[in-house]
Amino acid sequence: MDLSRFSLEDRVALVTGGGRGIGSTIALALADAGARVVVVARTLSEIEDTADSIQKKGSEALAVRADVREASQVEALMKETLDKFHRLDILVNNAGGGFIRPVLDFTEKAFDAVMKENLKSVFLCSQAAARIMIKQGKGNIISNSSMAGLKPAPGLPVYAAAKAGIISLTRTMAVEWAPHNIRVNCVAPGFIESHGVKQMKEGIPEIMKARLREVPLGRFGEPEDVAGAVIFLASDASCYITGETIRISGGTFNMSLLKP
User: How far apart, in whole angstroms, are the C-alpha atoms of residue 142 and residue 185?
Assistant: First the structure.
């Protein structure tokens, strides 16, 4: 096999939520694979740190502060990307988040906030990126969904619904944009050793210990485990894969956070 198919040399990648954790690890991995990377988040200091780390590796990087829940800011983000690099080859929709709360305790305001953070941001960024990629005749969109979007997730009801929405939206975008040579896929991580999981280990330790015991591979994932799947999907090694969701869970399906 020609391993150069895994290379992202000279491609331009944009990573939302790229300032820390999984997003930062993905951004650095894209740079290692040869891409020039646009790092996006709402916290400028974090994305500047990630961009600086990329540049120290000898790759080009651009840090852009933007709220990807807002259409006007997404539009400005895409313009800044084109002004700097003149194209966009890879979009990684990584921004997102949620909080633990049973269905009956969710307010309308909380529901809207979680949907906006996770699903609306993917819709806005994917739509804006696709308009660029259609003109180029090629592109690649990868979104960070979750195992919570594939199975019942007590304690994460709206987050799970939003992540399921990302999977459904991905399938539709993959079909609609395939004639333009744009591939659209998802990754669905389980529990990954990121900021959120570390908080859950402190806040609900017994539940998290129970979830760990259920992982066939015997550990929670690392951000690098997600980054590896993203690099594969972003590369030509996966050129016949679109509309798919890759689980990154160590073999487990259980995402319940309400009881051991």
Answer: 5
> What's the chain's average pLDDT?
96
8-248: CATH topology: Rossmann fold (3.40.50)
192-220 pLDDT, tens digit per residue, is: 999 889 899 999 999 999 999 999 999 99
| pLDDT given at position 259 | 77
Closest CA to 227 of 56, 92, 48, 90: 92
Residue 240 falls in the annotated catalytic set? no
Tell me the two tokens of residue 102.
């049973």
Which of 15, 96, 142, 159 is catalytic? The answer is 159
61 contacts 51 by C-beta, under 8 angstroms: yes
DSSP for 198-242 reads HHHHHHSHHHHHHHHHT-TTSS-B-HHHHHHHHHHHHSGGGTT--
